[in-house]
Amino acid sequence: MTLVSRFFLILTFLCVYTVSGFSKPGKPGQKLVDPNATEETVALHKNLKKLAKKHTLFGHQHATEYGHGWAGDANRSDVKSVTGSHPAVIGVDFSGLSGRPAEAIEKTKEALRQNIADTYNRGGVTTVAWHFSNPVSKGGFYWVDSVSAPAVSMIIPGGSHHETYKQILRTVGEFANSVRGSDGKLVPMIFRPYHEFDGGWFWWGKPHCTREEFIQLWQFTVSYLRDSLGVHNFLYAFSPDCLFKTEAEYLERYPGDAWVDLVGMDNYTDFGRNGRYNVEAGIQKLKIVSDYARKAGKLAAFTETGLESIPDTTWWTSTLLRAMRAEKMRLCYVLVWRNDTRSPTHYYAPFPGQASAPDFMKFYQDPYTLFENDLPRLYR
């Protein structure tokens, strides 16, 4: 090799090295909330970000735990019964890890652990909601006038129930550190605490705590799990409801880029709830989320949506897919809510024979959507 050839080879290497961003470790988007995140968690983040350029993963809450008219069947989901594939993203909930007898909590842990590990072993993604009961009063996770206490101010550092909250987090942390796949690795999870905080229906909602209290709660939760409890397999997701129209309103209770890996939105209102559609407004709100994610180097997702009972037989393609593909957005996943076991009307994904199933097959077959069978190896 000539000296000139060597020069150009070195020059090319340096250009690739610089463009790839490795020479600038402080570049926005290169850092996770947890600098000690496991290799599999880092890989999941990286691969979701890459896939979002051309695809969106489809998710369903509690998809493999139960469905329309069944519960507890192995390797089953209503989505799989219709399409042949599980959803790419499976939603679970940590609601059962506190506020119950110890025996019930242990039973919940066992079932959750198996479910999350199974999803990982198949190559899918787990996202975790947290509808946990008020740790200070009765009323459950909903705000109930005259019963519920404004608990946020009481569980943050200095509050009367701060130690109670730390114990709850210890249960969460111990569980997170116990979930391993068949390869022996800790399973990554997208942890989405305190969702829909801009509304008043949950005890952590906007009317029940100040902006500063909510941000302190978020930052303490993340730091305690990460730094004190050694949880390194979480990506942290921020998801208000759809009660915003501008980026400033969206970010009103945002804890800061150092504390969030994924930004999202829950929105049923604009997508047909109670027969009312304002899809264009929904698209603009998703665009705010997606645009901020790209600017801040975050993942973006449509963290909850759906149309109960799916009476609109073309909702999947004419409403949801149209919104996902609009405005060149980069959404790594969209998740619809659960299918209740007993209720004849409370379901958000089709099952065999449901009226929207044919359109859901078109949604499934569209190259833009990814289901579990479509996924590359996300954890490498």
TrEMBL record:
InterPro entries from the entry?
A: GH, GH26_dom, Glyco_hydro_26, MANB/E
Where would I find the GH26 domain in this sequence?
39-373
Q: Where in the cell is it found?
A: Secreted
EC main class here is hydrolase
Keywords, A to Z, come to: Carbohydrate metabolism, Glycosidase, Hydrolase, Secreted
Q: Is the Hydrolase keyword given for this protein?
A: yes
Query: What GO biological process terms does the UniProt entry carry, in alphabetical order?
Result: substituted mannan metabolic process
Q: What EC identifiers does the entry list?
A: 3.2.1.78
Keyword hit for Hydrolase: yes
UniProt-annotated binding residues for substrate = H131, W201, Y268
One GO cellular component assignment for this chain's record is: extracellular region
The protein's matches in PANTHER family, at most eight in alphabetical order, are given as:
GH26 DOMAIN-CONTAINING PROTEIN-RELATED, MANNAN ENDO-1,4-BETA-MANNOSIDASE E-RELATED
Q: What is this protein called?
A: Mannan endo-1,4-beta-mannosidase
